[in-house]
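Predict structure. Chain length: 406.
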Amino acid sequence: MADSMLIDAEAQDHAPHFEPYGWQHWPDHPWMSYQFRRGLGETQEGAGTISECFQAAARMVPGDEESWHTEWMRVARRNHERGDRAEASGHIQTAQNCWLRAAGSYRQAEFWLAPNDPRRLPTFELMETCSKRFISYLDPAGEAVDIPYENGVSLCAYFVRSPRGAGRQPVLIAMGGLDSIKDEMWFMQAHGALQRGISVLMIDGPGQGGTLRRHGVISRHDYEVPIGRCIDYLATRDDVDMGRIALCGSSLGGYYAARAGSYEPRLAACISHGAIWDFAAQIGERPEDHPLANHLKWVTGAKSMRELPEVVRGFRLEGVLDRMKCPYLIVHGGHDVLGVQAAKLVRDYAVAKGVDVTFHLVSEEETGADHCQHDNPTLGQEIIGDWLVERFGIDERALRASARPV
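Prediction complete.
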């Protein structure tokens, strides 16, 4: 795949500037610029403020991971403490706003820490603390849940019911990929679903978030197994429409979702928010000093970057999508920094196998052309949410007649 890792290339323009995929803050450090753009875009879904993002960036040493951690922690703690003070004063909406911003900044602060850094889990758990406080004041209140998985281990998750619609609601199982986590799903998938009368189950599957950090559970190619456990959990609830369960995975989660959607018959709809055809081919041969080397090895259990392609050789959709029976949506950035070839391969294969597939390649002009619409996540949520509304037969006008705001 010639365009598999375009993000590795430095931009020709070495000053901060706008690219087709969004804001490039440090062109000499493309991976850190990508992560900054990710946080900057998520501000519009509540993960922070634009001013705070640029304030933090202005105080960083470009390319320095330690200063990245220090400055995002400064922003996170400020919002966390302000949220706690607001709650104590009875200012609940301000408290929620601050906790959501703090969660977004803690996620950023944790990102570049080494897997064995003693600050990693505590930073992650500070993020979870803020997320849990935020969802506890939603109406209806969200729940932190542990979903029984394997060998006495549970998957970490949040369940949030939509305030729009009574009785049993459709549900979106929302998950990330290589590095995105349940807490980030609010900014990438969940908020838009809740606005449209769809409950959400935001999960950390194997190789993700708290399931990896607390329990050491690495990823697996047969993701229908953990998704099956999630559906088992949903079946225990009396507020879920078991005939309308959808699954969306972002980035590498685009592979996880397509795999699960091909093997788990209880799914009524499936979404690849960023498509992966063959993960090993996508990675190719990367050196030990690649910016994501530590994370790739941590998530997959590979002992070296040389070993990595062999470890993930089962993460591919050839011979898998043939089994897909439910409607399938692919949303992919037209200038995705990981390339677009894989998404087109997935689409073409799905079409050839008779899958009911919808393909949305997001253009530069509308913005959202970055990987998983990180430069405009609201647009990504609208594309996903509107497609689900159509597939689930939801009447949004009727929902709004007696709904509370989201």
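Summary: The chain has a mean pLDDT of 96.
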